[in-house]
Automatic annotation (TrEMBL):
Protein name per Swiss-Prot or TrEMBL: Small RNA 2'-O-methyltransferase
InterPro entries: 3'-RNA_MeTfrase_Hen1_bac, Hen1, Hen1_N, Hen1_N_sf, Methyltransf_12, SAM-dependent_MTases_sf
Higher taxonomy: Bacteria, Pseudomonadati, Planctomycetota, Planctomycetia, Gemmatales
Organism annotation: Urbifossiella limnaea
Enzyme class: transferase
Any one GO molecular function term: small RNA 2'-O-methyltransferase activity
Length: 467
């Protein structure tokens, strides 16, 4: 199978810098399924083409495996060596890995710049025909050219095959082009050559960040990419919906409204201080920051050496990118970098990566969840992840009347789905604690009003056996 990438950006030969492959060299790489060759049939100032040729060892792939009892030759007689498939995605990740990640030490400004690119695939199996091909590529801005091949030119009555020669053109970054191909080529093939598990779900969400959420065919893309596994598809679509909802509220005006409201009392500083103190008092060494946002609590946790492992999780990829930049993760000393990890994920779907931690912080998060999702959040955190201590904060609705800048009846933030009174929060927290074997205590955060209480209410949950 052959992938060709062409640019007319001048000087076009800079494509070699972006791909980290010299235009004058023919390079070969041994991968698990065969060999991959990278070369340039043309490399001038006006036009440059890079090719990735896969030589799949169809016999080697099945050597030693149990034969297919229905058709003993099926493992040997197939289209695997000739058509673009998940093998191509693996090859792109292995051979063009730096370009896929958008990294280019010699031309960083070019790696970040949209340039005219054409990718040609010879040949691509498209289960769903040209209509599906266009429905997937065109919403991403690509111009599509497709030529369908007959099953056999000598027997036209056999009809058309599912195989196409496909060219897609767009002005995008090379990283975007490779990412789209990495995800979508297996989608057109509708099958993979390896086991589809939880790792594939994380790959889809990571590589689909920023574009898959808004894609009109995201349901079908997720279904095919995840091998029609219902549980994985449900998780993927749920997390994509969560990310879409989180992205709806990212305008600076909306983000700053709550900060302006709380700034005179420096409430956020007091809230973070109270949470860190509670975590420190629990004796926790491995800590989760669930709904970590742009990393304000993570920064405070990093300052305290008691916390040996810190994991921040958020549904918004953009927030995680901002957190990484603000925490200067690429420049952290090795000792600090080993303590901190950022993950993309949802609080309403079980995630095994969250299990085994001493404590979890959930700071001003639950009020952003739709009330019907609270039970799912409860199970994910208190039943499945089950840390020894959970420190959870949420606004006290009763305090809102003390803020003159907040119109009566309005929430503090445009994205809040609810805000609880002290009694409502305590009733919910007591029910959660009783259902999952925790004891809960309540602490005020911020200046207390004699009638309306504190602006923030905090619940500290401790597993009964750990007390």
């Amino acid at each position: 199978m052959l992938l060709s990438i062409t640019t007319t950006h001048r000087p076009a030969s800079d494509l070699g810098y972006l791909l980290h492959k010299h235009p004058d060299k023919f390079q070969s790489f041994d991968l698990s399924f065969g060999r991959v060759h990278a070369y340039y049939p043309e490399a001038g100032d006006d036009r440059c083409t890079a090719c990735l040729l896969l030589d799949v060892d169809a016999v080697g792939l099945v050597r030693g495996r149990s034969p297919d009892q229905d058709f003993l030759l099926a493992q040997y007689v197939n289209d695997r060596p000739y058509v673009a498939s998940s093998f191509l995605s693996v090859a792109v990740a292995q051979v063009f890995g730096s370009a896929l990640q958008g990294k280019c030490k010699d031309r960083p400004e070019l790696a970040a710049a949209p340039i005219p690119l054409e990718a040609r695939l010879d040949v691509l199996p498209v289960r769903g025909g040209e209509a599906f091909l266009r429905a997937v590529f065109e919403p991403l801005g690509y111009a599509v050219e497709a030529t369908r091949h007959p099953l056999d030119e000598h027997f036209p009555e056999w009809g058309e095959s599912p195989y196409f020669s496909v060219a897609v053109r767009h002005t995008v970054t090379l990283s975007e082009l490779l990412t789209h191909l990495y995800v979508l080529v297996p989608v057109f093939d509708a099958r993979k050559h390896y086991y589809v598990g939880d790792d594939e779900l994380e790959k889809l969400l990571a590589k689909g960040a920023g574009w898959l959420t808004r894609h009109p065919a995201k349901d079908e893309i997720a279904r095919r990419y995840l091998g029609n596994r219902p549980s994985l598809v449900r998780q993927a679509l749920g997390r994509l919906v969560d990310e879409e909802e989180a992205g709806e509220d990212e305008s600076p005006e909306k983000q700053q409204a709550e900060e302006r409201l709380e700034k005179p009392t420096r409430l956020n500083d007091q809230r973070l201080g109270a949470v860190v103190a509670a975590l420190r008092g629990s004796g926790a060494r491995r800590v989760l920051d669930l709904g970590c946002g742009e990393g304000k609590l993570l920064r405070e946790l990093l300052k305290d050496r008691q916390f040996e492992e810190i994991l921040g999780l958020d549904v918004s990829v953009r927030s995680l990118e901002i957190a990484s930049r603000r925490l200067k993760m690429e420049r952290l000393p090795d000792a600090q970098a080993k303590r901190l990890k950022l993950l993309h994920g949802s609080l309403t779907y079980r995630d095994k990566r969250l299990e085994g931690f001493d404590a979890a912080a959930v700071v001003e998060v639950i009020e952003h969840l739709d009330p019907p999702r609270l039970r799912a959040f409860e199970r994910v955190l208190f039943e499945c992840a089950r840390p020894g201590t959970v420190v959870l904060t949420t606004p006290n609705r009763e305090f809102n009347v003390t803020w003159e800048a907040l119109p009566a009846g309005q929430f503090r933030h445009a994205d809040h789905r609810f805000e609880w009174t002290r009694r409502e929060f305590q009733d919910w927290a007591a029910g959660v604690a009783a259902r999952h074997g925790y004891a809960v205590r309540f602490l005020p955060v911020g200046p207390e009003h004699p009638e309306h209480g504190p602006p923030t209410q905090m619940g500290v949950f401790d597993l009964a056996q750990s007390r």
